[in-house]
Design a protein that fits this description.
It is a single chain. The chain is of the alpha+beta class. Among the domains are: 83 residues, no CATH class; 86 residues, no CATH class. The chain has 16 helices and 10 strands. The strands form 3 sheets. The protein has a 6-stranded mixed β-sheet. It has a two-stranded antiparallel ribbon with strand order 1-10. It has a two-stranded antiparallel ribbon with strand order 8-9. β5 and β6 form a beta hairpin. The model has no long low-confidence stretch (mean pLDDT 78).
Length: 479
């Protein structure tokens, strides 16, 4: 009887070893390693994301959100593209700072005490407004702690978003927030867990059978929470969609620098006809020695020194870098010319392509106007001001200031057609801001005083005008 040949079973480990030892095309190996590294990076990134199958709400895990926030803080300070993105958003939105005024005397007095309080300058001054914007853009969250205290001593502070570990809401309504849990450590390293009421939960309401039912004590401060770049409960940094591309852009430029340094190691090639001894003799005369610029090289027919062609492929690298940078530009909504390559911008793009950027900053201004309006109303309600007197006129500087000459002509034309508008303080303030006046509220107050004085003592008012004209002429003569 003929015997069947014995089957040889190859184990999985042996198959893997055979695959590793099998000869393969070098290009195939390079492509495989490159794609594998990309897959490994994406797999690490996916660890911070939740599976979308059967999930609702947050698509980024809590640990990933913290990691993104820390990376955003690092890139916003250390990386040129990250820093420029945040800086442009804040510069275009806040400019010289928000200005406000109220026609109601009591409202004006209460808010002046709040906004001008030296203890609140770190949050409410022009510097504080910029800091608030930077925090929102970099972290995606801003938690304002309001210490109301007495009617004339309301204070406002920041709480680090990393310290807010839980937002406690109505179980049936996630948008109705009751409390914020804060886990933090003091300067001595001792840890604390505190609970704060949301500004809408002044009466310390509790919902039965919910997570807040066991909260026995809350801190004095109320929390006003503002998030950004999200459709869920917690915010995300402006730089979140750009973080991966910023990292790759940095790696790309670092690789380009490495190529240039490598090419710079050897500038000349010398072919020598002769023995090794002759090569060593010629090499010893110049190797490791600094040659002065403009020196003359003397050679015989046995030596030929030629420059090495060091083509770095800069033109192609420039286009490759642009493709990566475009992803950062798209992520933050700012055109390429604002990131160092001004040759890509012109007057036409400034008036057409950048219109979406203008709308973007106007929307961001509206977010902050709403936030400051809410904060003002919290303070006014605590001070006992009637609700009908809560209106406060708040204005941001123009995102793109108009030409002063054209603005002046437009103002004159409008007042010629509607002279009654010249009586409105709002119109006066807008006109002063358009003309570039640094402190329109102070100038407007002075104009009011001067108007009353002109009505009671026209000779003194005329003298003041003549003095101002004389000073203006002197300044022009100096110029």
């Amino acid at each position: 009887m003929k015997k069947e040949p014995k089957q040889i079973v190859v184990s999985d480990s042996d198959k893997k070893r055979l695959r590793e030892l099998a000869p393969r095309d070098e290009l195939e190996e390079i492509i495989r390693e490159a794609t594998q590294s990309v897959e490994d990076m994406l797999r690490l990134e996916d660890q911070g994301w939740q599976s979308l199958t059967g999930q609702t709400g947050e698509v980024i895990t809590g640990s990933a959100r913290v990691a993104n926030l820390k990376l955003s803080r690092l890139y916003a300070i250390k990386d040129p593209l990250g820093k420029q993105s945040v800086r442009l958003w804040t510069d275009y939105t806040f400019g010289m700072g928000l200005t406000w005024q109220s026609e109601n005397e009591q409202t004006q007095k209460v808010l002046e005490a709040f906004w001008d309080n030296p203890e609140n300058k770190s949050v409410l001054s022009a510097r504080g407004q910029r800091k608030s914007s930077d925090k929102l853009l970099i972290d995606g969250d801003v938690f304002f702690a309001l210490f109301l205290g007495s009617k004339d001593e309301a204070r406002i502070r920041f709480i680090d978003p990393l310290e807010i570990t839980e937002i406690i809401t109505d179980p049936d309504d996630i948008d109705k927030v009751f409390y914020y849990r804060r886990d933090w450590a003091d300067l001595q390293g001792e840890t604390h867990t505190d609970y704060y009421r949301d500004y809408t939960n002044i009466k310390d309401e509790k919902v039965k059978d919910s997570a807040d039912a066991n909260i026995q004590k809350t801190q004095e401060a109320l929390i006003y929470y503002l998030n950004y770049n999200t459709t869920t409960q917690r915010g995300n940094p402006l730089l979140l969609p750009a973080l991966d591309w910023i990292k790759q852009y940095r790696r790309f430029l670092a690789s380009r620098i490495a190529v240039m340094l490598a090419l710079a190691r050897f500038a000349w090639k010398n072919k020598i006809a002769g023995s090794q001894a002759i090569v060593d003799t010629i090499k010893a005369t110049t190797h490791g020695k600094e040659i002065a610029a403009g020196s003359i090289l003397l050679e015989n027919m046995g030596s030929d020194t030629t420059p090495i062609k060091a083509d770095s492929g800069a033109k192609g690298a420039y286009q490759d870098a642009k493709m990566i940078k475009y992803q950062v530009c798209a992520a933050v909504g700012i055109p390429e010319q604002y990131f160092g390559d001004i040759s890509t911008g012109n007057l036409a793009t400034a008036k057409t392509v950048e219109l979406p950027m203008m709308k973007m900053f106007q929307s961001y201004q509206a977010i902050w106007l709403g936030a400051y309006k809410d904060i003002n109303e919290i303070v006014l309600a605590h001070a006992g001001i009637n609700k009908e007197n809560w209106y406060v006129d708040m204005d941001f500087p123009k995102i793109a200031p108009a030409d002063v000459a054209q603005a002046a002509e437009a103002i004159v034309g409008i007042l010629g057609a509607l002279p009654e508008l010249g009586v409105s303080d709002d119109v006066k303030q807008i006109a002063l801001m358009t003309l570039g006046v640094n402190d329109p509220a102070d100038v407007l107050a002075q104009l009011t005083v001067d108007t009353k004085e002109a009505m009671s003592n026209p000779e003194v008012a005329l003298l003041k005008v003549l003095i101002q004209v004389r000073e203006s002429l002197k300044e022009k003569e100096k110029a």
